[in-house]
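Subject: sequence -> structure tokens, single chain

Hey, anyone have a minute? Need the predicted structure for the following. Not urgent.
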Amino acid sequence: MEITAHEPTKLRRELNVWEAIGISLALMAPSMAANINPQGTAGQVGRAVPLAFLLATVGVLLVAYGFVRLTQQFHHAGSVYGFVGVTIGPRAGVFSGFALMGTYVFYACVTTMAAGIFGADFLQRIGVIPSGDMPAAIPLVIGLLALAGAWFLALVPARDGTRILLTVEGITVTLILITTIVILVRLLSGGGPNGETFNLNVFTLPQGTDLNALAVGAVFGFLSFAGFEAAATLGEEAHHPTRDIPRAILGVALFGGVYFVFVTAIEVMGFGGDAGMKNFIASGSLLGDLGATYIGAWIGDLITIGAAVSAFGCALASLVGASRLLYALGRDNANTPLLGMAAKVSPRWGTPSGALALVTVLSALIIVVWAAAFGGAAFDIFVGSGVIGTLILLVAYAFATVGAIKHLFFSGSPKVAVYEIVVPIAALVVLAFTLWLNLTFDPTTAGFRYQVVVIAWLLLGGIFVVAMPGLVRRVAERLERDEGLVAARN
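Reply:
Had a minute. Here:
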């Protein structure tokens, strides 16, 4: 039996700072991201992959400022939905929450397909699947099984789920760092197996590559960081939300910056810089291949299965984040049939089971339709969903940043030192510049098709808000009751 929207539907407050870090770290999935995302950047900037990730790090830290400042004052399961709602207004809040939910749904597709790709590769490495061309259906099936498993684990109490996520990701990241340090030592002590050497030219652009290409390549850096703010969705489940959630968000962003820049630099050097870019881009598991080359086949196998587990953990975190957002919308609009279902909470686990079911089914439908109707392989769905989810995410980040500016500096007396306003303004510049450079008007390109999906999702969010004025009123009432703010009502 489920608790209905007319009965008390509160999330359980049971998480500490480390468990909040677990959900952000799992959704960011540094193990998975370091193994597959840099190829997209390399296609734009060649050897300068770590430079692009450094640019993304700066952008993410600028955006993190707004989230940290807002979570020091508010704790709301809707994350961006709640923050923007109490700072800009409920219409903007619902729209931005709808946008961020779309990001999480598409990232569930990204990560389950990554789990399928890495899982199939591991099975082939150990001989379960015959060597040769991989049947296209195998990664898809493994990915869908991973999605089902993520749904099941997302039903258990958040404490158990985040402990699993933090443990698995921590072990895998440790293994990757050990491998990269071994590679670095070999590069410094006389070169790699094929004459690779330590060379800091990975932080310079190749001749003929301009800054526009660097900004476009940085999108895959943003994709790698995506989810650093996921702890914000656990504000109603943390013991000390205004202390622990900001620490979790900033800590994960800082760790991600150091980790990605260091690991991508070693990856590019390990493949041989300019001379190894062709193999770099073609690699199915960057650190798996490097581990096998520099240490032994066994380490490559371990990293590959670790990346699969990391992807699975990220899928779990994506479903957790999306379900919290949809739950927050649903409980504010329990009289709307579909949203009323989203407000259901499991009486046994205290998790938003109705919203979880809806976002899981939507993710599965995207994968199945993409594969069946458009002939998309697992890697195609991975790339496309990643681009779509990231571009939507940048829009949501922009709304949260504007909300932070308005609340901190233009709602009565400034709540922080006035000079700090340069940080969120710089964040808006970076976000706008990145979005602009990713616009394409060539309908023959995959990027144009991804762009259409992004625009369609955002338009759907806009229609959703305009067509349901009662929803906006109820959101305003709920936010006023929960957060005690009325100034932003519209």
